[in-house]
């Protein structure tokens, strides 16, 4: 018997593709939407049996606020999170918000469907080892507030760390290039890689994230170079 579903994802095309695949397997998809403001309102209004909620940043503070609201106003709706390769902290945050399960974004449609059926039946739709890690994080949360900054720092190369520090100092592409002795196009590429690795969409967001997590303190000082006349070669 098909399940009444809603699919909400950061990327509308992915939401629509998953919705189409589930329709072909006999499920009734009430809507496919991006998680803009109002997505939780839509889920609450339509009251599906299961809501698939996709996110690229499961460990980001506040990302599961819609789940909290959905479960508060429609407790009968099972919310199944679709996310990247999970960390215990991300899964713990999902379950703490009231989610019924966590499925990797790259899971085959058969796996997603099995998780949907488990969630509708009131079961935990997550691999046992991931569930164990999530409960461990809930019972013993990390005490150090700068752990997230260390994790982010380890994702970046030394050159990308320098770029991030310069971005946080308010340097534009020209100044970054001049200070590091590289071409503006290379500086621009480094900035884009930093934004991608941090999972943010702008330099301002990158600077705010770095400051909030203590990443800048861990990065240490950057020795700024006075650009030569004529700019970098």
From TrEMBL:
PROSITE patterns: HTH_LUXR_2 (PS50043), RESPONSE_REGULATORY (PS50110). InterPro entries: CheY-like_superfamily (IPR011006), Sig_transdc_resp-reg_C-effctor (IPR016032), Sig_transdc_resp-reg_receiver (IPR001789), Tscrpt_reg_LuxR_C (IPR000792). Residues 4-120 form the Response regulatory domain. Gene3D superfamilies: 3.40.50.2300. The keyword Signal does not apply. Residues 149-214 form the HTH luxR-type domain. Keywords: DNA-binding, Transcription, Transcription regulation. It comes from the Bacteria. The keyword Transcription regulation applies. PANTHER family: DNA-BINDING TRANSCRIPTIONAL ACTIVATOR DEVR_DOSR. This is LuxR C-terminal-related transcriptional regulator.
């Amino acid at each position: 018997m098909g399940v009444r579903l809603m699919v909400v994802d950061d990327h509308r095309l992915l939401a629509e593709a998953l919705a189409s695949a589930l329709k072909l397997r006999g499920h009734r998809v009430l809507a496919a939407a991006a998680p803009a403001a109002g997505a939780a309102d839509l889920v609450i209004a339509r009251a599906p049996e299961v809501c698939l909620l996709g996110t690229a940043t499961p460990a980001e503070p506040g990302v599961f606020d819609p789940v909290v609201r959905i479960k508060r106003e429609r407790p009968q709706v099972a919310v199944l999170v679709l996310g990247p390769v999970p960390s215990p902290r991300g899964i713990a945050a999902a379950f703490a918000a009231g989610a019924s399960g966590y499925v990797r974004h790259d899971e085959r449609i058969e796996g997603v469907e099995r998780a949907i059926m488990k969630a509708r039946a009131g079961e935990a739709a997550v691999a046992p080892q991931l569930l164990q890690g999530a409960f461990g994080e809930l019972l013993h949360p990390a005490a150090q507030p700068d752990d997230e900054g260390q994790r982010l720092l380890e994702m970046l190369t030394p050159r990308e760390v320098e770029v991030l520090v310069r971005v946080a100092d308010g340097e534009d592409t020209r100044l970054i290039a001049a200070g590091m002795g590289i071409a503006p196009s290379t500086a621009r590429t480094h900035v884009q890689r930093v934004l991608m690795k941090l999972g943010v969409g702008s330099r301002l967001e990158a600077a705010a994230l770095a400051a909030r997590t203590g990443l800048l303190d861990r990065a240490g000082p950057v020795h700024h170079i006075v650009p030569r006349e004529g700019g970098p070669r």
